[in-house]
Specification:
The complex is a heterodimer of chains A (234) and B (153). Chain A is built from 4 helices and 4 strands. With 234 residues, chain A is of the alpha+beta class. Chain A has one domain. A 4-stranded antiparallel β-sheet of chain A has the order 2-1-3-4. In chain A, helix 1 runs antiparallel to helix 2. Chain B has one domain. Chain B has 4 helices and 3 strands. In chain B, strands 1-2-3 form a 3-stranded antiparallel β-sheet. In chain B, helix 1 runs antiparallel to helix 2. The chains are: A alpha+beta (234), B alpha+beta (153). The interface between A and B is medium-sized, with 29 and 30 residues.
Amino acid sequence: MRDPKRRGNTLIEFCLVMVFLMLPMLLFTYGVGFNLLSQLEVVQLCRDAGHLYVTLNYGQTVSLSDPLFTSVLTQIGASAGYPANAEVIFSKIVYVDSATCALGGGTGSPPSCANSGQWVYEQYYSTGTKITGFTPAPNLATPSGGTGTGTCGLLAPGCGAVDSQGTFNTSDSVSKPGLAVGANFSQLGISSYNPDTATGLPSGQAVFLVQVGATPFNVTGVVSLVALNDYAVF
Amino acid sequence: MMFVYLDIAWGIFCKATLEQAVRVGARYGITNVIPDPNRPDLCASSATLTNCITQHVQWAAGAASGTLLGGLLGGTTGASYINVAYYVPGTTTPITLPNTTANNGGNVLVVSIVNYPISTLVGPYIAPNSSSLATVASADTMTQVVSTLQPAP
């Protein structure tokens, strides 16, 4: 027979287990589950935005600021929070070899430019809402002094003039240090052309990079993420 | 609690499946060819590209290729959630079909599933007829094909 003084123990144990173990587990599953769903949307947005960017860039039928482009991005990325809670960055990056340097006005034999031997931006366009304190992988250096619109040469070292599509002049790309992508580009595993081994990207071939960052679903004290992000290279 | 875990897993599975389905539809659609040479059994009798894209989406969501029944988007009810739209660059209003120029090369194709109800295991017991509505979309640029070979949109 149970001692009357010990009745209620199971109730107390049940409450303690619920509060300190089961409830946090439930909230954690809930938080991770929702973030997983959002991450699916982020990946979808990144892939499709990249496809559109590349095909339309070559076809020149739609510009990045075209209302259709924005409208389609909104349809694809609505569940990921675009445009209010997500940012999409489009970058066109090239390697400055002798031919590219000469194209940008470099002189000498071989032509010499300030950015010779580096990967540089030819275009950098950001749309949506930037997540404070977060740069989507692979954490490339952004063009110094600009966000993709307006004049980009206000801050030293500057990046020259830029149009409404975030496109820089070739002469600026090869000469402005602010347009160099930086060392993190090596994370992508892309190399410039090596004539000895006939490997790497051909001279002048652009790398199209699309990066997406989105606001995560956080549960205070249980799930705490800075951002959901993905990138794709074309 | 087990039901909650199952519901979350089911929701993620459904969303991932729907995402994959619209992606398959869009990637096929931009080839601008009917029937699909890689899936001749799927929509050999389709008269329009839009219809063939819809069948690809249904198939990718688990429907049988012959009957288009089963899966998440089987049958006419499932097909009703699928939306295929064509846009001319510079505009934000989809082209009204039938318009033979809708699938011209360079146009933008958007395949979406709108307000698909993901039924939960627990939901009906808490709130009858409850479900989460999922909307997914995929887009790409139409390929230019020889005009004599371009299918009806």
